[in-house]
């Protein structure tokens, strides 16, 4: 067993060297975690909670760890033109690039203003939520120049732009909670200027409007495949983290009929999510850090332990368009965000704490 562990560790380090991460220096790297994929097919990490999910599972596909060694991996976005994935490593203040063809992992952008959410717009450009320092939404043009799409609303700085999605009419929608200015881990502590934590819309004409103003720290967001519904995570919801559903008006702007679609219960942590072509929601999942009301005896000490076990919660939950649980993809780390990618748009990339994992499925991303 020890020999097997050493061999896996050696292969992991070889992967780093091949991907170029070793050249970044030890101070830039977090702990790297060896990962042993399941040998059996179908992968026992894919738990079917409803028989209707079986058609999305590929019998001979298993969860893979494509890279590791980050402090908080977030905001994955896939670019089919180049066959690569971009994702944020927030505390290390950089955006990373994974090349699907070569397996190389390199720094796409250093000093990224603690970028969080990323997305590809309809013209193949990167749009990014810089959620600290600059506190703005930017677009990276094809020539590498950066265009600022929004950095203030009604004369006051944005809070900390978090997650982002681009609609077919070229409007850009993003959430603006407080996480990037609440402390020193994911950026720098800053002064809040917005009275609310809004969901904003940037029109194709560049006009910024507050589309939703009554959610407490909204986080992930996505549209249904027909764009008739907008889904938004409320991170600080009462009593639990939730996904709210809104009907999108015929004008593509107005929202109505706010409905709670998914309740994460008192243990689960919703973060980022994506929608497939059938309207199912694939949600990053894990422990929300809530503690039991009473301490337990651990080694002679009274310890307030977590509600639920992270090893039972960490992964991806899949829900139907009606909010019915369909499946759970078990991961060894909490999944913060995910996206679909690959040449056929059926490879699920999962940004999960220190690592990024991937799984081929018989589902395709809606965008």
**For the terminal residues, how far apart are their CA atoms?**
44 Å
Structural class from helices and strands?
mainly beta
Percent in helix: under 10%
CATH topology: Neuraminidase
Total count of helical runs of at least 4 residues: 2
Order of helical and strand elements = HEEEEEEEEEEEEEEEEEEEEEEEHEEEE
For this structure, what is the CATH class? Answer: Mainly Beta
Biggest sheet statistics: 6 strands, antiparallel
Classified in CATH, the superfamily is: TolB, C-terminal domain
Please tell me how large the radius of gyration is.
Answer: 20 Å
Arithmetic mean pLDDT: 92
* CATH-derived architecture: 6 Propeller
Number of structurally distinct domains: 1
Strand runs, count: 27
Keywords: Hydrolase, Signal
Pfam family, one: SGL
Protein name: SMP-30/gluconolactonase/LRE family protein
InterPro entries: 6-blade_b-propeller_TolB-like, SGL, SMP-30, SMP-30/CGR1_Lactonase, TAT_signal
Write structural notes for this entry:
This protein has 367 residues and is mainly beta. It has one domain: TolB, C-terminal domain (Neuraminidase). It has 2 helices and 27 strands. The chain has helices spanning 2-19, 310-313; strands at residues 46-48, 64-79, 84-89, 94-99, 105-110, 115-120, 126-130, 136-140, 146-150, 152-153, 156-157, 164-166, 172-175, 199-202, 208-212, 218-223, 229-234, 242-248, 255-263, 273-275, 281-285, 296-298, 301-303, 315-319, 325-330, 337-341, 347-360. A hairpin with a 2-residue loop joins strand 22 (296-298) and strand 23. Residues 1-27 have low confidence and may be disordered.
């Amino acid at each position: 067993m020890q020999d097997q562990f050493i061999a896996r560790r050696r292969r992991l380090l070889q992967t780093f060297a091949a991907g170029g991460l070793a050249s970044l220096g030890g101070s830039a790297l977090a702990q790297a975690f060896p990962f042993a994929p399941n040998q059996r097919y179908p992968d026992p990490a894919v738990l079917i909670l409803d028989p209707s999910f079986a058609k999305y599972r590929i019998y001979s596909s298993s969860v893979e760890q494509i890279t590791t060694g980050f402090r908080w991996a977030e905001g994955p976005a896939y670019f089919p033109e180049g066959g690569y994935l971009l994702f944020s490593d927030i505390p290390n203040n950089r955006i990373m690039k994974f090349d699907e063809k070569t397996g190389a992992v390199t720094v796409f952008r250093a000093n990224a203003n603690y970028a969080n959410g990323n997305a590809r717009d309809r013209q193949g450009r990167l749009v990014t939520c810089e959620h600290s320092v600059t506190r703005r939404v930017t677009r990276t043009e094809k020539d590498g120049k950066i265009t600022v799409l929004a950095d203030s609303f009604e004369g006051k700085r944005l809070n900390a732009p978090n997650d982002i999605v681009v609609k077919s009419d070229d409007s850009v929608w993003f959430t603006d909670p407080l996480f990037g200015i609440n402390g020193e881990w994911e950026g720098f502590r800053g002064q809040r200027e917005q009275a609310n934590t809004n969901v904003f819309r940037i029109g194709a004409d560049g006009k910024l409007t507050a589309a939703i103003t009554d959610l407490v720290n909204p986080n992930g967001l996505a549209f249904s495949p027909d764009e008739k519904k907008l889904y938004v995570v409320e991170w600080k919801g009462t009593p639990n983290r939730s996904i709210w559903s809104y009907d999108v008006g015929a004008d593509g702007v107005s929202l109505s009929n706010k409905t709670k679609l998914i309740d994460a219960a008192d243990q689960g942590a919703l973060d980022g999510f994506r929608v497939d072509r059938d309207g199912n929601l694939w949600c990053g999942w894990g422990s929300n850090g809530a503690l039991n009301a009473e301490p337990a005896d651990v080694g002679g000490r009274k310890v307030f332990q977590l509600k639920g076990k992270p090893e039972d919660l960490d992964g991806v939950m899949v829900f139907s368009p009606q909010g019915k649980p369909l499946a759970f993809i078990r991961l060894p780390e909490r999944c913060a965000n995910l996206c679909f990618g690959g040449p056929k748009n059926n490879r699920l990339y999962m940004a999960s704490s220190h690592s990024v994992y991937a799984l081929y499925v018989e589902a395709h991303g809606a965008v």
